[in-house]
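Trying the structure run again after the queue cleared.
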Amino acid sequence: MNNREAKDCSKVEERMIIEIEKKLLSHLPDYKTNPKKTLNYLITHKKILQTSSIKTLGIFYPKYFDGGVERVISLQIPIFLSLGYQVVLITEQLNESLEFPLPPTVKREIIPKNLNSGRLQVLGRILLNQKIDILIHHAATSQNLIWDLALSNQLGKKTIVCRHEVPAFNFLLGTNPKKLEKIIIEPLIYKLTDSLVVLGKMEAAYFQSFEINSVFIPNPPTFTPSQNCHSVNLSKKKKVVWIGRLDQSTKNYKAALEIMCQVAKSDPDVECVLVGPEGDPASGNFVNRFIKEKGLERRVAWKGRIQDVETLLKTSTVHLMTSFVESFPMVILESKSFGVPLVMFELKHLEITKENRGVISVPQGDMEGASNAILEIISSSEKERKLSREAYASFLDFYERFNLKELWSKVIRGEFSLPKEGINEALRDFAVIQNNLLELGLKKNSFEYKRQNIEKKIKRVLGKLMRNLTKLKILKVE
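Done. Tokens:
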């Protein structure tokens, strides 16, 4: 192909991208008022793509620093490279000083955050210019996901969505109808992708009940120490560590502060440390004010963002987790890999703690139970040693059951499909009736439904009034 033909081809592709963007965004007004209708249309017009020779993978997430998802991506990339694929990392932000390490062979691209800033055009050019065969999309609950998937499909690119949230996550956001509506529309959105990778058997079964090609693949481990590094030393100062973003809505860091306060008051030699960036500007101020007001400046510390998590865990006695909800928390994997005993608010669905080894779980919100569990561990070397052995052994046993390289290879090649034995009918029926009833309930809460009810009531009242006036008129005539 000569240069002139290459330019002409590029112009053709550019016109195609613009036309697809224009067509997709024409559905945006309808999507805002009736998302289910729009999604059903896009599903009906989804192209059936055949698996061909796959050479290049695109990976998207808004940023590549700070969070657990970003860390997971940094651990998945070496797996994809070892399978022989080229990788293009696509983000909305660039902050090299904070970002996780990136192999030099990985290409980097930036796209706009908003649709009205030309997001789809830029993404379309990247998919075509970089010859990306499959887009792996990690922003499974993003408002842009539907449009990114639809664009990729229309350009002949397969997609894999990696979901890092549990199915019931939207309930945590309150009773706002728009938030609850996501429970209904998310399964429809995932019908636009070729595969959905989730972080638990529960999630896989739930989405399979909607006939979505979903598969459970654990996150890769951050560290793989050859032996248990945890040291039970009676003369060593005991350290309780909490790791996470200061996000009260999910991580519940305020409970961690209260628990650490109780522990510090009960044991004068324990050191308590919170590690992680602010969830919002007020969160850091709250932590600092709490520590000062309780007079715990020498006992409790907030370290903010740190790079050396390994050293922190190697010197920790107990790992505390207070989250309301988690899907596959990397921090538990990391602490288990170093044999650190875990005290946590109960999350029974987590695959990595199902065997209850190396962990003491207390009911959600039981701060006294959590502080007592911590005090029990730091006051008993025998208890600490037992939990440490269990934690490290459970980490090793968990990953012996999964060949991550093979699992990802099968997903990329399109070799995973819905279970041959069929979908769990009872679970499918529950999922369907749950969403049907939720949809009816949301309709009853809608402005239009309330307006119609008010109109009916007004008509009934007016009808009764007219009948009464008619009766009065007849009486007067008589």
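The first helix runs from residue 3 to 25. Worth checking whether this holds up in the mutant runs.
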